[in-house]
Amino acid sequence: MRSGGGRDERSEDLQVGRWKPDTSGRLERAAIELYLENGFARTTVPQITERAGVTTRTFFRHFADKRDVLFVGHDELRERVAKTIAAAPPAWSATKAAASGLNIAAAALQSSQDEARDRRSLITATPELRERELIMFAAVAGTISEALIARGVEDRAARAVAEAMVAAFRVAFEYWGEHTERELPQLVDEALDSLKEAFAAVGD
Amino acid sequence: MRSGGGRDERSEDLQVGRWKPDTSGRLERAAIELYLENGFARTTVPQITERAGVTTRTFFRHFADKRDVLFVGHDELRERVAKTIAAAPPAWSATKAAASGLNIAAAALQSSQDEARDRRSLITATPELRERELIMFAAVAGTISEALIARGVEDRAARAVAEAMVAAFRVAFEYWGEHTERELPQLVDEALDSLKEAFAAVGD
DNA sequence: CACTGTGATGACGTTCGGTGTCATCACCAT
DNA sequence: ATGGTGATGACACCGAACGTCATCACAGTG
């Protein structure tokens, strides 16, 4: 590889710098391709880096680990969710404020449908990746919980509500992965309605 | 426990067989000791097996991985939860049936308080272990969901309710870890009440 | 135009988690 | 005694992940 320490490159992939540009992007694409082709477990980092034209060490300079590739960008989305909840009218209930945040996330995923569903199928097929997904959702719940507490919701209640609403989101998200005709935001609403109905019966 | 097919045991550690008895138990104890002493990440499997007096290979014959040590026995508890839900009166609501299952788990953990809290502190201190804990809870939610479906609850609603109730349990469980004076079953009830109140406001 | 700093990468070595495989040997049943 | 079984030791191996240093295009400076 390395296209020969090349200062003079006349051939097609004439690159400006010392290295081909967008290393991170090339790694991400190569990784996802290989995960889809051979499965996550049977894909090794050397395979990925070979396809991307870099060394193994470089992979770990861009991603914390093999799984990380599939979870880039979620942090920003989480921030948007937090901001949305913080910006919701103070009069709104905890569930309504949280729901507004989840709507942002649902809309974002809906708009990048194809890519999101690709990742989902990969993740659901691989226990190791499901683990990581659960962590991500836990982080989201944590963020929402904080946002609710900032709105004055009592601590434990905020945690419970945040976790429960994320749970609803997850159920909707999974269903969405298998039913391409449905739209995520509405599925989330339906899940929340289910919970409303079910929890009305708590305590008899 | 095998208690040594013991014909003649005069001195305490006089072993009958070729190997010392209770390998699994010795490994588990050694591992937890070391995790507590040096932290999970800084403990290596060779360290564990050295203390337990076996080879590294043997460790992986008893546990799937380093984390597995802290999650043995949860499968049985999960089964008990499932059976409890299945055995609940058909007239009970989904939440009430599920709550009866969670109560079994809460009571079990409450009764082995000290050990449970030891594990909890280890798990909460280690991201890698939190991951695994999330998987366990996800499995519990899956089991409860199935049990509810078997009771006739509609599929998606069952999933949502199961996940939400496990979420409530988790919140209570965490709080319980920090408030030794409170009892887990009651904390779970309180969390469920929080959800009832909050979700009553869904949909305005 | 030479000089220098910077940042991304290559190259190399190492630790450790985890698996496959085969030989060994107490125990048990016949 | 004889052969089967099951748990373990011993050994080799792969791959993930990290530490470290050298390298070299590029930008900026004078």
Characterization of this structure:
- Chain A folds into two domains: 42 residues, Orthogonal Bundle (Arc Repressor Mutant, subunit A); 127 residues, Orthogonal Bundle (Tetracycline Repressor, domain 2).
- The longest helix of chain A is centred in the C-terminal third of the chain and has 24 residues.
- The relative contact order of chain A is 0.10.
- The first copy, chain A, is an all-alpha fold and 204 residues long.
- The N and C termini of chain A lie far apart (69 Å).
- Helices cover 68% and strands 0% of the residues of chain A.
- The first copy, chain A, is built from nine helices and no strands.
- Chain A is elongated and about 60 Å long.
- In chain A, helix 5 packs parallel to helix 8, helix 5 runs antiparallel to helix 9 and helix 7 crosses helix 8.
- The N terminus of chain A is likely disordered.
- The interface between A and B is large, with 42 and 42 residues.
- The structure holds a DNA duplex (30 and 30 nucleotides).
Strand percentage of chain A: under 5%
Helix amount of chain A, in percent? 55-70%
According to CATH, the homologous superfamily of the largest domain in chain A is Tetracycline Repressor, domain 2
Number of domains of chain A: 2
Précis, in short:
With 204 residues, chain A is an all-alpha fold. Helices cover 68% and strands 0% of the residues of chain A. In chain A, helix 4 (74-87) packs antiparallel against helix 5 (94-111) and helix 7 crosses helix 8 (155-178).
